[in-house]
Amino acid sequence: MDLEKQNAANAAVKMILQHDVVGLGTGSTAYFAIAAIADLVKNGLKIKAVATSKKTESLAVSMGIELLNIEDVQYIDITIDGADEFNEQLQLIKGGGGALFREKIVASLSKKEIIIADSAKKVDQLGKFKVPIEVVPLASSYVKEQLKRLDGISELRKDGDSLYRTDNGNYILDADFGLFTDAAVLAERLNQIEGILAHGLFINLSTMVIMGKGSEVITYQ
Ligand SMILES: O=C(CO)[C@H](O)[C@H](O)COP(=O)(O)O
Fold first, then answer.
1. So what CATH class is 131-200?
2. Going by fewer Cβ within 10 Å, which terminus of the chain is more open, N or C?
3. Which residue's C-alpha comes closest to atom 7 of ligand 1?
4. Which atom of ligand 1 is nearest to the CA of 100?
5. What mean pLDDT is predicted for residues 59-68?
6. Residue 215's CB: how many other CB atoms inside 10 A?
7. Which band of pLDDT confidence, cut at 50, 70 and 90, is reported for residue 215?
8. Per CATH, which fold does 2-122+203-214 belong to?
């Protein structure tokens, strides 16, 4: 799987142009892209980057990639990020690494949102991977109840013996809706629930998925 991730990452970084503002994703697949971008920077590529998490921020700095504050950025030319599941309509589940809110803002700012993935991430129907939902802590019981009304069984994500906290200090509810046929409808319903900062359904945000499969690379757009 690492070879598939690496191949997808290598194909994606070829799309970066000189002086681009580049969004850097979070996770083990995005890691390969960040490392490849750092190599290009060492060899003369001039870019500025925006990170999708504190973890990616530290990684980028340690690799010598210049970062911009997300609040100072009006647009991003290209973002390369991973996903937990994707389908051929380029709908995604993201947030396995807990960075979904910033990933969504970065994706929304991006002219090109390139998702890189190994072949295990491709599904016909989304929903085997539980949908991560970032909730403001005081709203977590309320949101859990609202999710039940949508046939979603959710659990607060743990970090050892404690509750997991996002970079924004919030909780994550991982919600099992079973396989769903209409991700856009579910995303719209989640958008209506007070207390949810962001959910991991990315609809109409990705412009291309590059998937490694064996030694091949397959592109969906
Ligand atoms: O959404 C994410 C982090 O919040 C990641 O992109 C997603 O979890 C995929 O991670 P990996 O590449 O490690 O499988």
1. alpha beta
2. C
3. 83
4. 4
5. 98
6. 8
7. very high
8. Rossmann fold (3.40.50)
**Residues 123-182: tens digit of each pLDDT:** 999 999 999 999 999 999 999 999 999 999 999 999 999 999 999 999 999 999 999 999
Distance 23 CA to ligand 1 centre (A): 14
Q: Which residues are catalytic?
A: 103
| Tokens linked to 100 | 């979904």
Is 95 labelled a binding residue?
A: yes
Separation of CA 92 and ligand 1 centre (Å): 11
Give me 208's structure tokens: 């291309």
Cα–Cα distances (Å) from 126 to 9, 102, 194, 212, in that order, read 23, 22, 24, 19
Pair of tokens at residue 60: 């980028």
Nearest 5°: phi and psi at 193? -85, 120
CA 214, CA 220: separation in Å to the nearest integer?
A: 16
Specify which residues 111 forms β-bridges with. Answer: none
Q: Do domains 2-122+203-214 and 131-200 have the same CATH topology?
A: no
pLDDT at 1 over 90: no
Q: Which residues, 6+ apart, have CB-to-CB distance to 206 below 8 Å?
A: 83, 86, 90, 91, 92, 107, 113, 114, 115
User: Could you tell me the pTM of the whole model?
Assistant: 0.97
The dihedral sign for the CA sequence 51, 56, 57, 61 = negative
Give the binding-site residues of ligand 1, using a 6 Å CB cut-off: 25-30, 81-84, 94-100, 103
Phi, psi of 208 (to 5 degrees): -160, 145
